Amino acid sequence: QVQLVESGGGLVQAGGSLRLSCTASVSIFSMYVMGWYRQGPGHERELIATITSGGMTNYADSVKGRFSVSRVNAEKKVNLRMDSLKPEDTATYYCYARNSLNQYWGQGTQVTVSS
Q: How far apart, in Å, are the Cα atoms of 108 and each of 3, 43, 46, 91, 93?
């Protein structure tokens, strides 16, 4: 059973930064895509950042240039660095991983950006 546990959420003022981490219960070498989704109040879940096993990254336009995703396979972690945060970034952030068999989700961590 693959488990993903997020950490690092919280309350921050607009313009501030946060770093989210996601730790997997198993090796992530086989996870060919990992990343982050978010779901804000009244919004559908949105894919915001992904990173492949080869290190290629992709970002939603809404976060491009402000967020940075990385993965540390040896630590079984995927991280999300969020800078220049805006009130509209307020959401629950979910870690995501996919291998050849299945896709997995964390329970989510809340990020609240105050104006």
A: 12, 15, 13, 10, 5
